[in-house]
Fold each of these.
Amino acid sequence: MNYLLGAFKPACNISIAFSDGKTRKQVQLKKENGQTVMVPLFHSQETISGMISVEPIPGKKVDHNGIKVELLGQIEMYFDRGNFYDFTSLVRELDVPGELYERKTFPFEFSTVEMPHETYNGVNVRLRYVLRVTISRGYAGSIVQFQDIVVRNHSPPPQLNNSIKMEVGIEDCLHIEFEYNKNKYHLKDVIIGKIYFMLVRIKLKNMDLEIRRRESTGSGPNTHVETETLAKFELMDGTPVRVSSTS
């Protein structure tokens, strides 16, 4: 039985090391199995480089038809798992067909890579960037190793960021006006605003403010929307007696 189990072990070990791996910031990434791992953080237009080591199992040799590394940007819909849309695909050939008897190391570099979209793990879709090393073989089957990275892109603050005013209500019963200090926020911003009760002719129990994340996938009649509440705050308990504001 031990012999049979050993037959399914990879013929070699593949490791990926980034050139600035010791100094580059690491962030958490949730894997498909629910586990969280630390992976390097990159931004668009950065260079991704490093070394890839291939080490055959001691006493064995690896016949191959070539070794390559790919940098892929992929979108996967969870209802269609396993099928990826590649919006970024770069390839570097590392070795020509031959044989490996001992550990061999290959340098790689993807210069000033355009990575326009940020890494995202949602309810129905995920967007990821991954390095994929492939040792191509014939009947024995290819050996593949993956290394995820996270991409975050920062854009400059908008030159114009006007306030938002909205009106909602029930005719002749309730008239409320909302005011927010701006219409675009940084992820670490504080949301500041006011709520005016212009008309109140019904009994109100309380008032809550929720911050929700809205995910929309698909297009046209196949659009699917998921909403998740990120935070909830109680602003008022009971009915206001006169026109008041809450900030």
Note: The two ends are 69 Å apart (CA to CA).
Amino acid sequence: MRSPTPREAGAQARLAKEQHVQSENYTIFNILSKGEIECSNSLEDESDTEIPGQALIYRPARQHIYSILLESREGGAYSFVKEWFVFFGNPLKQPELIQPVQPIPGGTPNLKTLWFAKGPDVEKQRYSTFLACFHLHDGMEYLQGLEAPVAAFCCLLVYLMMQVSSLSMEDLNAFVALVLCLKGKSAAELASLQLAQVDSRGVHLGAVIVRGLSTLLMANSACGFPFRMDDLMPWQVFDGKLFQEKYQQSHRGCSLEELLEGNESLYTPFENLKSFICKACMAKKRTIHSRPRGNGFITGTLQREFNPRFQQIHRSSFVPPYHNQTRGFLWRNPQPQGREYRSCHPDRRRRFHVPSR
């Protein structure tokens, strides 16, 4: 694959800047112009070692996006992207240097083609490149038959289930029920939804999925917009209270009828979506197991209080799937008050606080 000429690179940068000013793309201009990206806040629970930091979960997808944007340089070498992404053990004192990774074996599609060319073949290439960022090379035929917001959300769920091995069939049921039930609800219905309790792990998973939606937006921008940006907005596929309800119902072992609110027209779409996601994961040697937590499941600080060995067992068995390429991955000692991050970069002297559960 040839490198872009200075003229082509200039045209790409101008288009990215125009879209950035008009809020039509997401994060792309900063990567192209400065080779830098920032996400300096996060809602996470440092005591929940089953779920890696959001920055680490979505890093492989970002590496593919960087490859699409930056393409190959002279001699086949890639530029590094400076990431200012906060996560457990990273106080943002300096950026991590992250190398792009080709999403498609054999070469990254040409950015000039993805952004400027027209025609059905190019539309197909945009869509397939987007899917490749989330390790879904072979899912195009099924996904194109779904409504665009559902297809994008399904793509995100496959990626998330593959990256986080602790996610269970109950978690998947809750996510799928959420996206199917949300469409039929008005803003007033969602506002009036009442919850007897809020599960902290459900809040954590909700934050993870919302962060994933921002990754979908970035991939969509990089690939020349195979989806309308409106189709990827959070309110199309996610509501916090509704997800809490579905999460708790699923882990209590509620019936499919209750999970889908008695709407028989959703039964077949529900099973089809689940089947597609499970098959896609199995193709990557990932089997999704049932792991109901019920009403009595206690996580984080409370579980450590009831079982002092919990922290030792889970700290030693959890190995983060990615590490800092310049410094390695560092654990801090857990703090009961939650965690606060402060960036020491001269342009980032502000504080980031994540409350404990």
Note: The beta strands are 36-39, 81-85, 96-98, 339-342, 351-354.
Amino acid sequence: MTEEAFDVTVVGSCMTDLMSQAPRLPKAGETIHGHKFFIGFGGKGANQCIQAARLGAKTAMVCKVGKDFFGENYIQNFKDNGVHTDFVGQTSDAATGAASIIVNDAGENAIVIVAGANMLLGGEELWGALPAVSCAKVLVCQLEISPQTSLQALRMAQENKVKTIFNPAPAIADLDADFYRASDVFCCNESEAELLTGSSVANVEEAHRASQELLKRGCGSVIITLGPQGCVVVKAQGSSSKHVQTTAVPAVDTTVSVT
């Protein structure tokens, strides 16, 4: 292990995506013929880490995979993309996280996720990865692992004056209030913001109000993404939120992983 500095360290999930494409989604108890199958590398944390690496950032991943075929392939995939893997752990107690995904010709999908080894990432692994957390410029966390592990990682980063970015996905309604205070940047989409605030977030104006509510809970800044409507950003308590527009693009398949 080394105490080299990283631009981005991600503490989060790895999921092997088992993708099947079929004309339609099967009914309960039904077997249908599909027309394409492939295996991909997914997981919210790993996707964020790989994207950062592909954009030129020096990245490290803190995660857990199984001692199985998928786990070995996942570690090699990180290496192939230039991600530092000293803090990628393997366990015999659970399989590598996996998602079974069926996509129909209309782009609709049905997904079953088994978190597996992701849920075994805990405090012991975080302390072992302290060099990657404390020497990073930015730490990124999500909720596809144990929430308490993500919260502990955010706290460790702040204690070492590392900027924290927290993506509360998949969202949980009873999110620990400490997550807000541990987030220098709190980044969520409209549905997550709606679940967390209890108010509709269907347009830019509603996102403005939601961002102010989230900021009051202790975040350093808030970003609410709105798909084709762009995003709303507010940087400090008492400041007005800003709408950042984007160019709309057609969605082909939202389940395709980037890794």
Note: The chain has a mean pLDDT of 93.
